[in-house]
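Contributing new records

If you add data, match the layout below exactly. Sequence lines come first and carry their own label; structure lines follow with theirs. Keep one chain per record. Anything else will be rejected by the validation script.
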Amino acid sequence: MSRIAIIGGHGKVALQLSRILSSEGHAVTSFIRNPAHAPDVEATGALPVVLDVENSTTAEIAAALDGHEAMVWSAGAGGGNPERTYAVDRDAAIRSMDAAAQTGVARYVMVSYLGAGPGHGVPADNSFYAYAEAKAAADQYLRATDLEWTILGPGTLTGNPGSGLIEVSPKDPGTGRETSRANVALVAAAALELPETVRRTIEFRDGSVPVVEALTAL
């Protein structure tokens, strides 16, 4: 059994991920901003802990992560406010990486998106621009750390049931980008267990290959 922390624990992917990990026997701590979300987290088998990462220092995040073996960043500002997007998706994410390194949480899984990076191509006047820039910066920072990182790049998220079937490194990512949140949770859970995914950026969408088979073939 491992102790795994999830930051952004009330998100739709995170709730499914904590249920999967808890059912596998892991001790899951889900960090949430709103105390009212605690019952939803508890229902997945995870331990809810209130932590406002946007306004937490690196030292405070490190103290919260102490004792865990792995963590998943699944938080986000939710768009709409560029200033807050940078504060959460870039700055707080980077503080969490530094905190993980400081407290010895070597394994770090980042939930990003398909097409993230400096060449994201989103125009500056697009409402998605701040998020694209923030994720590009956070992902690049993570790649430069000594953490055992994995960056997950799912396509356009849907509420469809999880098939457990994906396509990794889609050849034409511009079309058919749909990726169920349930499949993202399955990929994150599998990645935590598979050494093949360490220091890899894994872009994927719903497909026809079982998750573990797709990830072990990297």
